[in-house]
Amino acid sequence: METPLKVLLNRCWSSNFSTILIILFGVLWMYYLYKCRMRGLTKKLESFNSIPTVPLIGNLNILSGTKKERAIKWYKLVTEHETPLVFWLLHKPIFILGRSQDIQVVLNRTLERDLLGMFEMVFGDSITGLQGEKWRKHRRIVTSAFSPNMLQEYLKIFNKYSFLLTNDLKKFADNDIAINTWKHVNHTNSLSITQNMTGHKLERGDRSITEFTDAFNKSLEIETSRFTCPVLLPKLIYKLYLLISGKIEIFKTMHRFPRQIVKERLQEYEKKLQENEQRKETDNSKTLIDSLLNSHIADAEFTEKHVRAEIASMIILGNDSTSTITNFVLLMMAMYPNIQERVYEEIKTVLGNSDREVEIEDIRKFVYLERCIKETLRKFTFLP
């Protein structure tokens, strides 16, 4: 005869109770491991300021709300707390730096940047997200395209598109209506950066570059949204989400433009190398894509995929950074007409009353303009 205890146990295990019990045990075990990890990390980081956390999610609750609300929250974090400040993304500690000397220390050291791996759908295998020896190798290849000789070549293209931008903005000079300069600056910069990085000439109004920059902005917004949705943090779940929602097409659109450019340039480059085997040693007027393709042909480990990633990354980041800086400088000039007048007088002193192009020797003569740009960067530090 079965005892009452045995009957109870049989009923429990034959029902859904066993499933619930196993799940509950698993959750409690994960929470225990989480607490152990957090206890160890918290002890190591106890000398830093931190924000009160919510169990399991850390400080993710702060990232809720609209873009504007999140921006205000970030601003309050930096202004109301002494930095470095520890921000917990689930169980990962992230340091928020607010002082320039702290940022300088971090940027001068080669650190692991695993968090940037979350943006791999945007930047791929470029120096933006690589680490260690791979990062150093890619950096050597990329920096070889920014020699003094090449900067002089780039300046010619900058001059060309600067005149186009100036003519665009002249149309609004006599109006008292406020305008959004971003679309004018951003479009002109995208053409300039693309030609400098790839040698690929684009006409104004070319849809390929517009589609590329629009897709980048949308893709970056999608990638950033992962920070506010813990469910999307695992890579597999995130990729399934992109596939099911159809948002994977945005990333395909973004990568289509650099893929086409690299394909065309690679065919041209291989043809020229066959015609002149010494070209890669004697040609000192290479663009970035030439340096990348040269490394690709010489080193099998530096694949065509790496070339595409570096080109896309440089066009994206180069355009975004220069457009943002230019717009902030224009804003500050509009806010301070007396400073704008001094800058104008300095430009006239250096260039005279002619419309001649700026030469490399002229740049160091724009002392006051340089100060204005640096002061703008100090006030509106948008990217380290």
TrEMBL record:
Residues 259-286 form a coiled coil. The chain crosses the membrane at residues 13-34. The keyword Membrane applies. One of its GO terms (cellular component) is endoplasmic reticulum membrane. Its cofactor is heme. SUPFAM superfamilies: Cytochrome P450. Its main location: endoplasmic reticulum. It is a peripheral membrane protein. Gene3D superfamilies: Cytochrome P450. GO terms for molecular function: heme binding; iron ion binding; monooxygenase activity; oxidoreductase activity, acting on paired donors, with incorporation or reduction of molecular oxygen. It is found in: Endoplasmic reticulum membrane; Microsome membrane. It holds the Pfam family p450. Keywords: Coiled coil, Endoplasmic reticulum, Heme, Iron, Membrane, Metal-binding, Microsome, Monooxygenase, Oxidoreductase, Transmembrane, Transmembrane helix. Belongs to the cytochrome P450 family. This is Cytochrome P450 3638E1.
